[in-house]
Amino acid sequence: MSSVLIVEDEKHIADGLRYNLRAEGYDVDIASTAEQAATLLLDKRTAYDVVVLDVMLPGMDGFLFASKLRERGNFVPILMLTARGQAQDVLRGFEAGADDYLPKPFDLGVLLARIHALLRRREWLRKDRMPAATADGSNIVDLGNKTIDFDALELRSGEQTVHLTLMEAELLRYLINHDGRIVSRSAILEDVWGLREDTDTRAIDNFIVRLRKYIEDEPSRPRHLLTVRGVGYKFVSATAEAAAGDD
Question: H helices within 44-165, ranges in order?
Fold first, then answer.
């Protein structure tokens, strides 16, 4: 039985979600604050498979809570509930470490489908059955002295391992699939996150800065994740880099 933690301060919403999720066979707990949720998540006797996290909470909000959770090395899938579903809220949630989002008011069937999708991706990781991450079917990408393992959502460099959120992995997957080609910011918004092309793209720039810290030896002088001024970005693999050097 999969276990879901609902972090929601509006009692009627939390109780309704618990009732319907239990009817679907889930084990469900409720926390009305981020602080209470942190206590439950840090209790080693409790292993949640998905967290349904409201943004507007008393005290610590959902954005800060998700960010702190990731900083502490907890990578449980997070479905974030946003009050208005504005694109900037969605991007801010992804930056904080959320794996999916749903605007309020939401359809129960859609929420159940999103939870199921997150559980399915988690199961792929557990059974090493995650679909091919790159266009050539490979789930492991070699960057010379660093390796991206999309099965484990990890980037490894010697003895150091960096855990990737699903959103970080999806962006890297997209860029790698376009190896050597320029990708516009609007294309990333639409193809990776399903947002309008007129959305403020600064959140993408913040993602790129973070990914460069992961994959580049010198983030200020990137070799693999390049900025194409006024257009977008281009990923250059070790293979493409070597081929360019032969020209």
Answer: 62-71, 87-96, 108-126
